Structure formats: C-alpha cells, structure tokens
TrEMBL record:
One of its GO terms (molecular function) is sigma factor antagonist activity. Residues 180-277 form the FecR protein domain. Residues 320-389 form the Protein FecR C-terminal domain. Pfam families: FecR, FecR_C. InterPro entries: FecR, FecR_C, Ferrdict_sens_TM. This is FecR family protein. Gene3D superfamilies: 2.60.120.1440, 3.55.50.30.
Length: 390
C-alpha cells in the first residue's frame, strides 16, 4: 500500500478517536512515524486552535445516530454525507502529511522522474477589486485599509453597514461590484447582514443598501460563492435571491454554495442548511440540505443528487477536498487558486483519479510532489506561471 494511502487511512482512524474523546491508539501503533513525530502530532492536535475546530465539529454530531455512519464508513471506503467526520479527518491529515513530507517520508521507490522547478509559485491570498457605482476601482489590500460611508475593509473582508435609519426610503439603488482575481479569495458582509465568501476568479454585483421590504437581489456574474443569508424574518419577509447565468436561487434564510465558472457548462448549487428554490425560465427545483442541483446551461436541464457537503464547501475553510476527482478537474481548481496555466504532456494523465484533502496554504510544488509520490503523475515542470504535468 502506498504511504499516502496509509496516511489517509490513519487520519480517518485518528479523527474517529478524537471526535469520541478517545486516545488515538492507531497513531501509537503506526510505523509511519517515530516517537518524536507522534508526540509532535499529538501536541499539534491538542493546540488550542485545533481543539476549537474539534469542539465546533462535535457540536454538529448526533452522537447516537451518526456514529453508526462513521463506523460503517471506516469499514467500507465509500462516499459519505457525514461532513463533520470528513472535516476532522482533514485536520488530522493536514498535520500528518506536513510532518511526513517534511521528513522525506516517501521512499525512493515512490519517486519517478526528477522534478523541474524554475521558480516557486505561492498559494493564493486575500485580494479583491471593489468597483464603485461611479466606475472607480479600489484595490482592497491588507496594507491599506479602505473606509467610506457605511463601508470598511481590512483587506480580508469588506463590510457594509445598515444606514443609521434603516426605515428611510432608498430612492435609487447604488450597486458595487466585488471582483476576486485568480489567486485570490475574499469575504463580504452585505448591508442586511448576509455573509458571502468569494472564491478565486469570481465576481459579484450587489446593492450598497437594500430597499426595506423588497426582495434582496444580488448577481453572481461568474465564479463561486458561499452564502450565509440573513433570515427574511429580520427584513419584513423580504426574500434573498441570487441571479447567475441561466438560473436564480431564491431563499428565505439559509446557507448554500453556487459554482458557476465561465469555462464550465454546468452551474452547481449545493444546499447546506434551510431550503432553496432553483429557478430557470422552464423549471423550478426545490433543494433540501445535502442536495446539489446541476444545471446544464447548454440543454437547460437540471439534475439533483445527494452530495458530501464538506467536499463542496471545504474551499472556504482553507482546504481542498477531492472525492475521486479526475486530475484534469483537480488541476482546474488549482489553476484558479495558484493563478497558473496547466498543460498535460500525455492526455491519459487527465483521467487519473485522486481522493484526499490538501491545505490551500501548501505551495503548488508541495501538492504536485504529493501527487507524484502517490504515483498519480510521473513528474512535473514549473516555469513562471506554467505547469506541465508529465
């Protein structure tokens, strides 16, 4: 068994133990790490930030019903909708993989052709361009905070405050645009309190202030966004609606993710909590939690399926979560975050599959090295912003 597969299996077992507040015996008996390395893993797992993550995950678990799911999924490596367990495994896997790779833990037999790296490509960061109603563009940067009337940004997120008199009449709605480039991410709080996470290569149009009692409408022009919507009950029943391409998503107050990239024919809407209606000119589709609609914009059809929610929203938590994804699809995701152009030397490599979780703060070189050491790719070459998979 490949070492990477062993680490994934070990991480699942450790995660199960941690969520039950049990000693991770699987780590004690593992031959993958030395005693010092095992101690380092335990120390990092008991760090305050990691404890906070675990407590957040545990709060979402129905201890009696969901643990049967965990045990069955440990025994049978199949797809699961149990995302808190997957999140815990992601925390453990990130720590274990970092320690294992840093010590050169893959054997020479895991290696293939040499790696060619002419420069280092760093991960993406918080960055965005704010376009005002006047057309003026503002680069949102951590080094230069931005403040205007009822809005401020610290370079990681931008917050619109409700007017001092929320009942006052809005005669004309002013719109802003928030554009997140390739290699970026950003957060936005709308004037109604709705929280939005924008992924790389995304653009959102929204009003600076909503009209009281009227539908709250924003437009995802392209890209991916996660919405945590302020309930309609707090806004005189006003519904929240996201328009994008060939569909609209109507909600009362809920959490959901929309992925609608320009270079993809399918628009994906994933519901985490609450209920939404996905509308096209021809169809209306209701979604319940853990469901995803796939709108084919070419033939205007909608398919609905059960999904592992964690895989769909892990990006906003700083994690790539891939569940049997093709290397082509994976490199498409990575190309947006690292702002790179990817080419495959052999077309058959595009169909190689990968299951696992990776931290978004890894360098692209580290991620590709993991793929190589797992025998998914033979080698790779990095030259400026170009990556060649071999």
């Amino acid at each position: 068994m490949l070492n990477l597969t062993k680490i994934l299996s070990l991480s699942k077992q450790i995660a199960a133990s941690l969520l039950k507040d049990e000693k991770p015996e699987a780590l004690d008996s593992s031959e993958l790490f030395s005693d010092d390395e095992k101690e380092e893993i335990i120390n990092r797992l008991t760090d305050e930030s990691e404890i906070a993550s675990r407590l957040h995950l545990k709060a979402q678990i129905d201890r009696k019903a969901d643990w049967e799911k965990i045990q069955s999924n440990l025994a049978l490596p199949q797809k699961t909708n149990y995302w808190p367990y997957a999140a815990a495994a992601a925390i453990v896997l990130g720590i274990c993989t970092t320690i294992f790779v840093s010590k050169g833990g893959f054997s020479a037999t895991d290696m293939a052709d040499p790696i060619i790296v002419n420069n280092q490509i760093v991960p993406g960061d918080d960055k965005a361009i704010l376009t005002l109603e006047t057309g003026e563009e503002v680069n949102l940067d951590k080094d230069v905070p931005y403040t205007a009337e009822n809005v401020q940004s610290d370079g990681e997120n931008i917050v619109y405050n409700e007017a001092s008199d929320p009942e006052s009449t809005v005669k004309e709605i002013a719109y802003n645009f928030l554009t997140v480039p390739r290699g970026g991410q950003f957060q936005l709080t709308l004037s109604d309190g709705t929280h939005v996470w924008l992924n790389s290569d995304s653009k959102l149009k929204y009003p600076v202030r909503f009209k009281v009692g009227e539908p709250r409408v924003v437009e995802l022009l392209y890209g991916e966004a996660y919405f945590d919507v302020s309930p309609s009950t707090m806004h005189k029943g006003a519904k929240f609606e996201v328009i994008n391409r060939a569909q609209s998503v109507e909600v009362l107050g809920t959490e959901f993710n929309i992925k609608a990239y320009k270079d993809e024919v399918t628009v994906y809407t994933t519901l985490v909590e609450g209920q939404v209606k996905v509308r096209t000119q021809e169809l209306v589709q209701d979604l319940v939690p853990n469901q995803q609609s796939q709108l084919n914009t070419a033939n205007r059809t909608i398919d609905v399926s059960q999904v592992d929610v964690y895989n769909e929203i892990a990006w906003k938590e700083g994690i790539f979560s891939f569940d049997d994804k093709s290397l082509k699809d994976i490199m498409t995701v990575l190309s947006r975050w690292y702002d790179i152009d990817v080419a495959f030397e052999e077309k058959n490599l595009e169909s190689e599959r990968f299951v696992g979780v990776l931290k978004k703060n890894y360098s692209i070189e580290t991620i590709l090295s993991i793929f190589q050491k797992a025998n998914i790719i033979n080698a790779f070459e990095i030259n400026n912003k170009s990556v060649i998979i071999k």
